[in-house]
Amino acid sequence: MSTTAPSDDIGTRLRLVRQIYGLTQRELARRAGVTNGAISLIEQNRVSPSISSLKKILDGIPLSLADFFTHNFAASDQVFFAAAELTEIAFGETVSMRMVGGNLKERALQMLQETYQPGADTGEEMLRHQGEECGIIVSGSLTITVGAQEKTLQPGDAYYFRSDIPHRFRNPGPAPCVLISANSPPSF
């Protein structure tokens, strides 16, 4: 096994990219119009492809040469999160937001499990920020105000709105409200 970093090893990098995109060697070869053996030899680092050959192969994914050489395809980004690994964003003792993934740098989406205790409220001052947000009520009830609209949602109900419209969340019920939400771009 090679100890060369994937960015310096075209064969290893090609194999990682192909696997990330869920392609077999045969499927990539068919898409690119090359032989299955050519893909195999490149991935084993037994041949070094010309720039034009590599571009032809990457066009079958599709992926640019620049992305192929600059993107970090190593399996270092965490994909799965145990419940205990969710990052807690607490707003006092009445509102809990548990975020999937702690590092939001370069992410376009933020996913949360939110819990509002009975009487919990995001505050008298309406929230407002760039982006969009949506959510689905899992249990309890939640009154959501978006601009001039207001509605109390029950389990299974959902919302979706532009976040630059002033909005507010509050739990009017006797039980905690749990919901799953997402916002883009991340705002917390």
Automatic annotation (TrEMBL):
PROSITE patterns to which the protein is assigned, alphabetical: HTH_CROC1 (PS50943)
HTH cro/C1-type domain span: 14-68
Sorted UniProt keywords: DNA-binding
Signal sequence extent: none
InterPro entries: Cro/C1-type_HTH (IPR001387), Cupin_2 (IPR013096), Lambda_DNA-bd_dom_sf (IPR010982), RmlC-like_jellyroll (IPR014710), RmlC_Cupin_sf (IPR011051), TransReg_Diox_bact_type (IPR050807)
A Pfam family recorded for this sequence: Cupin_2
Name listed for the protein in its UniProt record: XRE family transcriptional regulator
Native organism: Acidocella aquatica
Lineage: Bacteria, Pseudomonadati, Pseudomonadota, Alphaproteobacteria, Acetobacterales
